[in-house]
């Protein structure tokens, strides 16, 4: 796989944040340690905000990083109004996470959880945003789109990478990242920290500075992962872990993927 100096620090180690001129919050999901002591592979799966304003140098960098799949989680209208900029050898994949019809009903339906007849009860969440996240997890359309993202990632070779994104790289992207990390057995606390990093990166953008790995680690060390916006992604984790009995069950029952797929996914993206 090609290695770009823009994604390496002075020690030759990968950076969490890929510094681009035309977008922010473009980052690598590598380097996270799971419950078995394995680590997610660097330079394989990236998450991002909008890719509609990439510069020529940005596109050159993404091609150098062997990113061959651009998975756009935005709605068709967003994609048409503000299309992604492409780069060499990339495949654009329209994968709108939210339903294109009945969206408001999904946001306002606090009874979605009741349609599931399960041995485990889907947890009731008090936070309204966490409730929306939960409804997304339990909506058939969104489950199909989550499964499509996993199918794209499973289709890569060992030398290739993919990026998935929405508009700000927070809600739709954050839920997708959480499911990916859950499938790789990453601890809940780490998943929450990854989710909250979006806020830190927007702060850096406002100050017109690019954060280093040290900056990111300092931000993580200061996080309060028990209150505020952390509750949003905690609702995702509670729904999967308590409501479905873990990611293995959600993978099989909600996403319709096989256990062989899960084992292959872990083999591909853990070391």
Q: What does this 3D model show about the protein?
A:
This protein has helices at 56-64, 76-81, 103-108, 128-137, 140-154, 171-183, 188-206, 213-221, 230-243, 247-254, 259-269; strands spanning 27-28, 45-48, 67-72, 91-94, 161-165. With 271 residues, the chain is of the alpha/beta class. It is 44% helix and 8% strand. The relative contact order is 0.17. The longest helix has 19 residues, at 188-206. The chain has a five-stranded mixed beta sheet with strand order 1-2-5-3-4, sandwiched between helices. The protein has one domain (5-269): Protein-Tyrosine Phosphatase, Chain A, CATH 3.90.190. The chain is globular, with a radius of gyration of 18 Å. α6 (171-183) packs antiparallel against α7 and α7 (188-206) packs antiparallel against α9. Pfam families: Y_phosphatase3 (PF13350).
What would a concise description of this structure say?
With 271 residues, this protein is α/β, with parallel strands linked by helices. It is built from 11 helices and 5 strands. The protein starts with 26 loop residues before the first strand and ends with a helix.
Helix-strand category: alpha/beta
- Reported by name, the CATH topology is Protein-Tyrosine Phosphatase, Chain A
How far apart the termini lie comes to 16 Å
Q: Name the average pLDDT.
A: 87
Q: What is the number of beta strands?
A: 5
Any idea what the CATH architecture is?
Alpha-Beta Complex
Radius of gyration: 18 Å
Question: How many helical elements?
Answer: 11
Full CATH superfamily name? Protein tyrosine phosphatase superfamily
Domain count: the total is 1
Give the strand order, joined by hyphens, for the main sheet: 1-2-5-3-4
User: Which parts are unreliable, with pLDDT below 50 for 5 consecutive residues or more?
Assistant: 1-6
The SSE string, one letter per element, is EEHEHEHHHEHHHHHH
Summarize the biggest pleated sheet. 5 strands, mixed
Approximate helicity band: 40-55%
Backbone shape: globular
State the name of the first-level CATH class: Alpha Beta
Strand content: 5-15%
